[in-house]
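Chapter summary example.
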Amino acid sequence: MSKKRIERIVFLGKGGIGKSTILTNLSTIYAQMGRKVLFVGCDPKRDATMLLMSRTDIPTVIDQLIRTNDVRLEDVLLEARSGIHCIEAGGPEPGVGCAGRGIARMLEFFTESELLERNGYDTVLFDLLGDIVCGGFATPLRKGFGEKVFIVVSDELMSLYAANNIARAVVNCAPNGVVLGGLVANLKDAKADERMIGRFARKLKTRVVATLRRDARFRKAEYRRLTLAEHAPDCETVKNLGKLARKVLRIDPARIEPPTPMDDKTFYELSRREFSR
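The structure predicted for these 277 residues follows.
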């Protein structure tokens, strides 16, 4: 009997770019498709899990370690709406300690408990904090838990700079089976230059897998502690998110070549020409 394939999807991007919002909606869509979903929060804010759970008192792996120096499954694995399972790494008090420690310990717990295999998940989504500059936050990639990486970008320069840095991390973690599935353009400005993002993607030897535009309903949904896929399931944005969800599943990691990130000097030189040549 062949081993069940687990989709291991990682979303990254500059802070505030919208990756958590997109990923919580994809989690909901996958659950609505009948997939067994585990949402892995790796952000000390816990905002994504709070949205999926409609509660603010989210226990985390770090919380459990502080209290008992041990992790118990029943204390950190939560069931959200639509049957989505959630687990949060958590983090220390602001200005104290390292949040990467929580992620590393959480992944050790995954191995010890055989959490992914024993619970029959077919889709695991990792919501990682910001652009990777710390090995602790890169642990899901370094340890081979994440596989398909998607970078959320806009047409803002620092968003693309962060994406280029993340592509470097993907190259470094490629021996662990990590691939760059593509970029997701999340555009707030109606006049944003989509073609420039496409040119940037080609410099990285990747592609733009989806383009999403500002939708005020996201904000209304979040105030109700719902994903947009629950709040307005028939709207055009949710239809586009559904297309992205299916496209992510269709990507075959074996057919993806490593990206070609630029050094900083080359990045800034090309950015002056909006990556036109």
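To summarize the output: The mean pLDDT is 88.
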